[in-house]
């Protein structure tokens, strides 16, 4: 088996080196593209599956020279040239004997690609082509490619692409900002490594993933990082053996598109997309490295996965960044850039004339941890002693109490924040009294707040009655499904939480029967979920609340609650949010993403 695997890898590598060119449409010298209009022309591969040209950035007057999947609605970009220096409207791309050159309207060069001289001799470009593999190539006088996008990757690799020793990928800064971001993939010493970067510089922190294929024995070290035509990704060693990465195995399919991208959040992810499929599908995540980047990054210096003073939590299999109590995002449009305190604090922040207990209070936080950066350890201390020590210490921003006798104090900036399972350890944040942006509010955990929230939802009055009831019913359905259809117990409480699970009869009694009838004029309003989903699709929130003026004055909250409810009643249980996530979304601690689809029961 090892011999067969080695032979197949050698065959693949040999084939990948061939000039995959015979079916290409040649682009002749002097050919050009322009970014003068929003609908720019492009150079297509023979099949039309890939395109090379200018892409407009965020409906602005800036353009990116890129390669993208041309046959899918998203037109996903897989390579780009000038992410740090987008071209202004009116720029031109031209193929010359020197290679590719992008000039702005003033004639200044924005970007260029040219062959490297061989033996001090100039190499002249004769033509170019966009290949069906997604590789854009320049051809010289011979049959060899003298430049190709596959040898100059950005954040993505494609089937038939290989990375040689010394190659790298770099993430985007955000999903829509193509500047170099905060993470890099390196294949330098025979191992694939993922590293956080000291952005905006390029200093590399310690890796958070390492394939460990850089063996002392040179014959066993990695030589090629390969993405074969069938969709598998692996390392080819010097002796021809294959080393798999430490992720899930997949069964590739010939009727799928594949790509592997170092995403802006630092996760190296392989995706697939079914060819000739309905237009409402999107890229599917197949496997990723690391599985949990929040805990994988653990460096004494640097901010961690998210920026300083924030914490990372895996939501829907992806990392998300959040601010602790009393802190706000430095850049709300890019939550990975960290948080800052939204109040005056620190030594010198006050004149010293008032007792710190009059100015500050402690907010208890139980679901996160900042494991590094302690500057003082105190013991034996009670929790009250720990809180008082932090309040009276002008350098202390947060204290960690282990639930028994030990207190650790930390100062800003906080780093490597990550979500964790609740336990005896308490995170004690010092915040300014009267601060209205502290986020989490009280000292209780999310689970203990659920009964209060449900009670408020059900008994909160008639202003948001329709959508409030929808959320409440959805939560009941969600909890019932979590317990399993085979569980016939009549107990109306969940064993591991304090959540009250109302029966439909109880809901009907609380709401005087309006849970079914809703006093609707039209027959299709008898089923609340169908009616609410229809109002959501048609953007008729006014109908949902019967034109209530108070409700319509807060349409943003109304819309958010409705989105939460639709998430809770998704047909696929795996896509429904957890109870903790629902609580956090209701309280505004988590963003509410657009629901993927309406449940099949709707309409």
Automatic annotation (TrEMBL):
InterPro entries per the UniProt record, alphabetical: Bulb-type_lectin_dom (IPR001480), Bulb-type_lectin_dom_sf (IPR036426), G-type_lectin_kinases/EP1-like (IPR051343)
Alphabetical list of SMART domains matching this protein: B_lectin
Keyword field: Disulfide bond, Glycoprotein, Membrane, Signal, Transmembrane, Transmembrane helix
TM region positions: 452-480
Pfam families on file: B_lectin
Name under which the protein is recorded: Bulb-type lectin domain-containing protein
Domain named Bulb-type lectin: residues: 29-151
Signal peptide: 1-24
Origin: domain of life: Eukaryota
Presence of the UniProt keyword ATP-binding in the record: no
SUPFAM superfamilies noted in UniProt: alpha-D-mannose-specific plant lectins (SSF51110)
Lineage: Eukaryota, Viridiplantae, Streptophyta, Embryophyta, Tracheophyta
Nucleotidyltransferase listed as a keyword: no
Annotated source species: Acer saccharum
